[in-house]
Amino acid sequence: MFSIAVAQSGGPTAAINSSLCGVFSGAQRYDEIDKIYGSENGIEGIINDRLIDLKQVIKTQHDKDLLMKTPSTILGSCRFKLGDSEKDEENYIKITETFKRRNIKAFFYIGGNDSMDTVLKLDRYFKAKGIDIKVVGVPKTIDNDLPETDHTPGFGSAAKYVATSIQEIIRDCRVYSIPSVTIVEIMGRDAGWLAASSCVLRANGEPAPHMIYLPEREFSEDKFLADIKNAMKRYKAVVVAVSEGISCGAGKSELTDAFGHRYLSGVGKYLENIVRDEIGCKVRSIELNVMQRCGSHIASLTDLAEAERIGAAAVAEALERNASGVMMCFHRISNKPYRAEIITCDIEKAANKAKYFPAEWINDEGNNVTIDALNYFLPLIQGEPEIEFENGIPVHFRLNQ
Fold this sequence. Notes:
Blueprint: E1 2-8, H1 16-28, E2 33-39, H2 43-47, E3 51-53, H3 61-68, H4 90-101, E4 104-111, H5 113-128, E5 134-139, H6 155-173, E6 180-186, H7 193-196, E7 211-213, H8 221-232, E8 237-243, E9 252-256, E10 262-264, H9 267-278, E11 282-287, H10 301-320, E12 326-334, E13 339-346, H11 371-377, E14 389-390, E15 393-394
Parallel strand pairs: 1-2, 1-4, 4-5, 5-12, 6-8, 6-11, 7-8
Antiparallel strand pairs: 2-3, 9-10, 12-13, 14-15
Helix pairs in contact: 1-10
């Protein structure tokens, strides 16, 4: 008999708890697994031995169902960067002691690019020390920028939220007779996947957003203004989607997180002021901000189901194939019908690396995306989970009432 541990890291999503459910359900299939531990606040909980026995928390099928549809990380998260074990071994020793004390033989880390750095470092350390503990990465990020995997859990639900919100913004913008411009700022520090996904509205005959700007293309303020003026000749209410990471005068903050990523600031508001000064029409900017990460009321059922599936597959990979130092990945087989299989990649190919939106999916003008992008995105936003409501409000699974 032995135990396993699972932790959640990085930014919240609508599907990260589904992956937790997948790991939990996958582990329950093995009689040799004694306890299934959840670590509070990612790797910090392992370092400080703050673990929860998940069997004492997730007790019924209703608990699982509710947890699957609850956004954010019920175990808490972190943005903690493990140092170089050769320079400072202290945290690695603490992690090893926690695992040995709890008889943990496999660790599953649900997270994005930076979380995979933790998987890489732990796996290297354990192998160098001859310690038999498996470490497997389970992908998660609304940015969809993890390499090697076709897409990431959390992205489909965020894309569905973004598209739905923009559609509602479009309806609002079109009620007035005067010309207007609305700029919607969407998350995406380095890669424009989420802003690009707003193109799915075309599948329902919606021409907006009329322009989409991504960090993968050089941004020109003069070209942006020319695009706006051109669109206003045809549309009374022009709606523009911009990724927060585009290069313009708003720039990036000097503040950084633990992994050295600069915080972004005010691209939408910056462009709003330019349009007001140069064109003089009614203009507003809307920053979707953190809401796009945890919109579980409009989540993609495909996203939640795949998140659970890949979490369970991670357990099987570690226990049945003795795998460690890998990240679970989706490999798309077809769009119509949509089919995707689960494979693995070496963690070195994913840690601290980014997957950018394909250049060939951006139009020649650099202000929109192609039909290939639409065909890629559409399968990921399909299906609606049955949401439980109480007093008119969605019910969420909570560890601490």
